[in-house]
Design a protein that fits this description.
three-stranded antiparallel beta sheet, binds pyridoxal-5'-phosphate, seven-stranded mixed beta sheet, alpha/beta
Length: 377
């Protein structure tokens, strides 16, 4: 039986008050006062000119693909090691993924392999800041500018992480956030689109509101609303925004607790890692991470699987992460082949994530650490 889960949903204590207040309002569909407050909190804390809550990070990525007009014949550069949502977003529009391997230190897209993958058809780079450690954004942005391709940051892991002092999610034309229950800040299921280029603002509202100009209508800017573009329903209920507001308001408490948990793992497992040929996570000096996850790179697939079983035997759930996308059934349809991206293939087999959640107690963490230290590779 699992006693210490990989993740446990967390509430700050303020959520119910806000949800009750949202229920008492005359309407609790999308874009009510709690949604507006979440937008304000995100825009203010990140310095982005516009944030729009969405029903998930996946949907924010779909909005990005729509806003960039990605379609048949277009190519989009993606790391071979990421979550499928980034790919679905533009494959749904008819565009093709062009995979690039990741760096062995951060597991982020290898910026030195991007340029060789750009063709006349390349329209965008969809990258992920893995574990909330920033990609090498100076290089990525200068390649993107040189070739006039858009950058979309899938920042599902990296809210409040920074690269050279600047918040992740503020570099690309568009960026996305996730508020799924496994993320630092959550409302169960949710996300946001961050818009760094104001030219997308008006159309983003339309795409998010079923392809209509309903947002303008609600602001009194037009006297009726109608179908003006393609779109879908990407806005969450104000009830979810009420829940999320409580979490966003507790930013400092949440982030400082996560930092404590991360640093405890790092400090307490250093000697064990050293003597067992295990690698701890690496954040380059220019990156301030978001403390989203704690993973280790085991010496082999066999050792990784053995540690999973050892921990499960003690009631602790540790989990691996993304499988190489180019070798997935969908990736094979886009010509993926074994051996194409050796770093992704190798690290995906050896990566292991330990339990890490806002409400993790010191005692739970000590039990995980003791159990890990008792394992020999
Ligand atoms: C990098 C990344 N992007 C997107 C997603 C999907 O997020 P959501 O569940 O909010 O759609 C995930 C899920 O964990 C993820 O890891």
């Amino acid at each position: 039986m699992i006693r210490i889960p990989f993740n446990r949903p967390f509430a700050t204590g303020k959520e119910l008050d806000y949800v009750r207040a949202a229920m008492a309002a005359p309407k609790f569909s999308g874009d009510g006062p709690f949604t507006a407050e979440c937008h304000r909190l995100l825009e203010g804390s990140l310095g982005v000119q516009k944030a729009l809550l969405t029903t998930s990070c996946t949907h924010a990525l779909e909005m990005a693909a729509l806003l960039l007009n990605l379609g048949a014949g277009d190519e989009v550069i993606v790391p071979a090691f990421t979550f499928p949502s980034a790919l679905n977003a533009f494959v749904l529009r008819g565009a093709r993924p062009v995979f690039v391997d990741v760096r062995a230190d951060t597991l982020n897209i290898d910026e030195n392999q991007i340029e060789q993958s750009i063709t006349k058809r390349t329209k965008a780079i969809f990258l992920v800041h893995y574990a909330g450690v920033g990609c090498e954004m100076d290089t990525v942005m200068s390649i993107a500018r040189r070739h006039a391709v858009a950058v979309v940051e899938d920042n599902a892991h990296g809210l409040y992480g920074k690269y050279r002092g600047r918040n992740l999610g503020t570099f690309g034309e568009l960026a996305t956030l996730s508020f799924h229950e496994t993320k630092n800040f959550s409302c169960g299921e949710g996300g946001a689109l961050l818009i760094n280029d104001a030219k997308f603002n008006e159309r983003a509202e339309i795409v998010r509101e079923k392809g209509t100009d309903r947002s303008r209508f609600f602001r009194g800017e037009v006297d009726k609303y109608t179908w003006v573009d393609i779109g879908s329903s990407y806005l969450p209920s104000d009830l979810l925004a009420a829940f999320l507001r409580a979490q966003l308001e507790h930013r400092d408490q949440i982030q400082s607790r996560r930092r404590e948990i991360w640093e405890t793992y790092s400090r307490e497992l250093a000697a064990w890692a050293d003597s067992n040929d295990v690698r701890l996570p690496i954040a380059p000096p220019e990156c301030e991470q978001s403390y989203h996850m704690f993973y280790v790179i085991m010496p082999s697939f066999k050792a990784r699987q053995a540690l999973i079983s050892h921990l499960a035997g003690l009631g602790i759930l540790a989990v691996f992460h993304y499988l190489p996308l180019h070798l997935s059934p969908m990736g094979l349809r886009f010509d993926g082949r074994q051996g194409d991206f050796p770093v992704t293939e190798d690290l995906s087999d050896r990566l292991l994530r330990f339990p890490f959640f806002n409400g993790m107690s010191d005692s739970e963490q000590s039990q995980v650490i003791d159990a890990v230290r008792a394992f020999r590779c």
